[in-house]
Amino acid sequence: MFVTAAYAQQSTTTEGAEAHDAAAAGEVHTETGVAHEGEAGSGVFPPFDSTHFASQLLWLAITFGLFYLLMSKVIIPRIGGILETRHDRIAQDLDEASRLKGEADAAIASYEQELATAKAKGHQIADGAREAAKSKAVADRNAVEADLSKKIAAAEDRIADIKTKALADVGAIAEETATAVVKQLIGGTVTKAEIVAAVKASAGN
Amino acid sequence: MSNDPTHQFLVNKIVPIEIGGIDFSFTNASLFMVATVGAAAGFLYLTTSQRGLVPTRLQSVSEMSYEFIASMLREGAGNGGMKFFPMVFSLFMFILTANLLGMFPYFFTITSQIIVTFALALFVIGTVVFYGFYKHGFGFLKLFVPHGVPGVLLPLVVAIEIISFLSRPISLSVRLFANMLAGHITLKVFAGFVTSLSALGALGIGGAILPLIMTVAITGLEFLVCFLQAYVFAVLTCMYLNDAVHPGSH
Hints:
The structure holds 2 protein chains of 2 kinds. Chain A is mostly helical. Chain A is 91% helix and 0% strand. Chain A is built from 4 helices and no strands. In chain A, α1 packs antiparallel against α2 (26-41) and α3 (53-186) crosses α4. Chain B has one domain (7-245).
C-alpha cells in the first residue's frame, strides 16, 4: 500500500507536468488526461472509483460527526434559545401591555367616578348657596318691609296727629279772625259762643 | 484545466495517510468536507453570536433555516420526531453548504461522490431502522403491512413495501448524487463549448454566444438544484423518520 501512495504522488506530479503541457497543446492534454485517469482509477468513472471510498467514508464520518456535534451542542441550543427568548419577550410584552391597559382603564373609571362625585358636590354646594341667598334675601325683604310699614304707620300717626292739631288750630284761628273781622265790620262785639257756632257751621260746609 | 468534464470529480491525495493497510489519505474531497463544515458551522456560529432580540439580516438567515427545518420535521414526523431535529438540521445544512460550495469554479463537489451521498442515506435509513426497532420492537414491522388491504393481496403488498423500503437508501443517495453530477457535467460541457468554439476565430466566437447563454442559465438552474436537492433530502429524511416514530400509520 505504501507503493500505492508513492505511486499516487508520482501520478500527481505527472498530472502537474501534463497540465503544464496542456497549456501548450490542449488537444494532446485531453488524451493524456484520460490516460492519467486510467492509471489512477483503473479507467472507471471518477465518482465510482472505489480506491478512495475508505478515505471518503473516514473523512465524512469525522467531518459530519464533528458538524453534528457542533450543531446539537452549540448552534441548535443557541438559535433555539434566541427564538425562545424572543417568544417569551413578546408574550411578556403583550402581558405587560394588557396589564397597563387594565390599569389605564381602572384609572379612567376612578377618574370618571371622582368627576361625577365632584360634580354632584358642586351642585349641592351651589344649591345650598342659592337657597341660603334666597332665604336671606326673603328675610331681609321681610325685615325691611316690616321696618318700612312700622315707619309708615308712625308717619301716618304723626300726620293724623298733626292734622287734628292743625284742624284744631284752624278752629281757633277762624274764631280769632272772625272776632276781628266782626269787630272791624260791625264794630260791636259778638259773643264767643256765637263765633264758635258760626265757625262750626262754616266748617261744616 | 482539462476539457474532460469528469476531471472535476477526480479525488486527489493531499496528505497520504494509511492505517492498517487501508488508504485513509486526506484528499481534496476531505478538504472540502472540512471546508463545508467550517463554512456552515462558522456561518451559523458567527451570525448568531450577537443573540440579538431583533435579528440582523444574517442572523435571521440562520433563524429561518432553523425554523424551516423545524417546521418541516414537525409536519413530516410530528412532535415525536423533534428529537431528530439536530440530525435533520445537520444533514440539510451540510448538504446545502456542500452543494453551494461546489458551485465555485475549481471547487470540489463532495455530494457528487456516490459514496458520500450513499453514506449519508445509510445514516438516515440506519437511524430509522435502529430507532424503529428500539422504540417499537417487532411492532416496527407493521410498517410493511398497510391497513385495509384484502388478505389475498397482502403478500404482494408486503413484498412491494419491503422492496420500496430497501430501495430508499439507493434512491435517496442516487437522487442527490446524480443531480449534482449531471449538473456539473452539463455546466462543464457547455462551458467547454464556449472555449473550444471561440478558439475557431470570429465565426466561432459568434457561435459561442449560445452555449455561453446556456452556461449562465444552467448556472442559475444549478443554484436552484443545490437548494432543492438539500431540501428534498431533508424532506425525505423527515418522511422516513415518521415511519420510525409512527410505524403502521400510513
